[in-house]
From TrEMBL:
<dbReference type="InterPro" id="IPR004013">
    <property type="entry name" value="PHP_dom"/>
</dbReference>
<dbReference type="GO" id="GO:0004401">
    <property type="term" value="F:histidinol-phosphatase activity"/>
</dbReference>
<dbReference type="InterPro" id="IPR016195">
    <property type="entry name" value="Pol/histidinol_Pase-like"/>
</dbReference>
<keyword id="KW-0368">Histidine biosynthesis</keyword>
<protein>
    <recommendedName>
        <fullName>Histidinol-phosphatase</fullName>
        <ecNumber>3.1.3.15</ecNumber>
    </recommendedName>
</protein>
<comment type="pathway">
    <text>Amino-acid biosynthesis; L-histidine biosynthesis; L-histidine from 5-phospho-alpha-D-ribose 1-diphosphate: step 8/9.</text>
</comment>
<dbReference type="GO" id="GO:0005737">
    <property type="term" value="C:cytoplasm"/>
</dbReference>
<keyword id="KW-0378">Hydrolase</keyword>
<dbReference type="Pfam" id="PF02811">
    <property type="entry name" value="PHP"/>
</dbReference>
<dbReference type="GO" id="GO:0000105">
    <property type="term" value="P:L-histidine biosynthetic process"/>
</dbReference>
<comment type="similarity">
    <text>Belongs to the PHP hydrolase family. HisK subfamily.</text>
</comment>
<dbReference type="InterPro" id="IPR010140">
    <property type="entry name" value="Histidinol_P_phosphatase_HisJ"/>
</dbReference>
<feature type="domain" description="PHP">
    <location>
        <begin position="5"/>
        <end position="217"/>
    </location>
</feature>
<keyword id="KW-0028">Amino-acid biosynthesis</keyword>
Length: 310
């Protein structure tokens, strides 16, 4: 059974993604998905945390829209979960934004909502500067970290450590996203001083029972290895860590993109199963309480067999 644990729509992430959420769900069903995790970006609280595309018509107007849009997203997700319950298992979540530690309480508050099944623990910023938006901002982040990529990587993994310790997200998003705009995204980290921080962070995730996602958007963005890169994935597997699987789609065109490549990537690592959730009860919630989540293993063979049109 094919699935994704990480997806976005243009309806609730305008400018960042494309297409209405229902159209994306319908396309995922047609692609053979049996489970889809809806994980729109969480609202932010500071004008300085908006992306350039969000500054029109004004930053103030955009910021004011974020929390009402999040509420509208939850309403629509619940509607779709019920409407398509006999065709696909819809999980409802969001992608966390650990821009600074002060966002921790907000992430915990949002995740406590009875409709929310899980959230993705992600970093898209280092020193408060976006590191995956464009090369110019990546260079700004390097300067803020002492002027070297090594300094930036160190800071990224330290901030990730703080997020992991504070929030313990079940799904850790694109663990090494920091590689995206690196001058040498495939460089070997093992043996470098920063490797100790990578291993430290992996140990934290393993200790609290989290999963790393194999995120195939890395291939779509031109990287030769998925998130996480091979040496990190091997270290994670040596610890007995588990993977979930995500396309990190930002619209219909990216649903299941590079999925066969991602499955082959895992198989070459010796991985023969990935993990997702099954809700009890489903759909909706009962008596205002969160649904229980059962961890469910899916073999790579079963996953591949479910896909259509690839």
């Amino acid at each position: 059974m094919a699935f994704t644990m990480h997806s976005h729509s243009g309806q609730f992430c305008p400018g960042h993604a494309k297409d209405n959420l229902e159209d994306i769900v319908q396309h995922a069903i047609a692609a053979g998905y049996k489970t889809i995790g809806l994980t729109e970006h969480m609202p932010r609280t500071e004008l300085s945390d908006l992306y350039p595309e969000e500054l029109v018509p004004s930053a103030e107007a955009t910021l004011a829209e974020l929390f009402p849009r999040h509420d509208a997203y939850l309403d629509e997700a619940v509607r779709l979960q019920a409407k398509y319950a006999d065709q696909v298992h819809i999980l409802i979540g969001f992608e966390g934004e650990w821009i600074r530690p002060s966002y921790g309480p907000l992430i915990q508050e949002l995740s406590a909502h009875p409709i929310i099944d899980y959230f993705i623990g992600s970093l898209h910023h280092t020193k408060g500067i976006p590191i995956d938006f464009d090369k110019a901002m990546y260079e700004q982040a390097i300067e803020a970290c002492g002027g070297t990529e090594e300094g930036l990587f160190d800071a990224y993994f330290d901030e990730q450590y703080d997020m992991l310790k504070a929030l313990k997200p079940k799904v850790v998003g694109h663990f090494d996203l920091i590689r995206l705009f690196s001058a040498t995204p495939g460089k070997i980290l093992k043996g470098a001083p920063m490797w100790e921080k990578v291993v430290r962070n992996l140990k934290v995730v393993k200790e609290y029972g989290g999963w790393l996602e194999l995120n195939t958007s890395a291939f779509r963005k031109g990287l030769e290895e998925g998130y996480p890169k091979k040496e990190i994935a091997e270290e994670w597997l040596a610890m007995g860590g588990r993977f979930t699987f995500s396309d990190d789609s930002h619209g219909i065109a990216q649903v299941s993109t590079n999925y066969l490549k991602g499955l082959k990537y895992l198989e070459d690592l010796g991985v023969n199963e990935v993990w997702t959730f099954e809700r009890q009860a489903h759909p909706g919630v009962k008596e205002g309480k969160k649904s229980g989540l059962t961890e469910k293993a899916v073999t790579v063979e079963e996953f591949r067999a479910s896909l259509k049109g690839l």
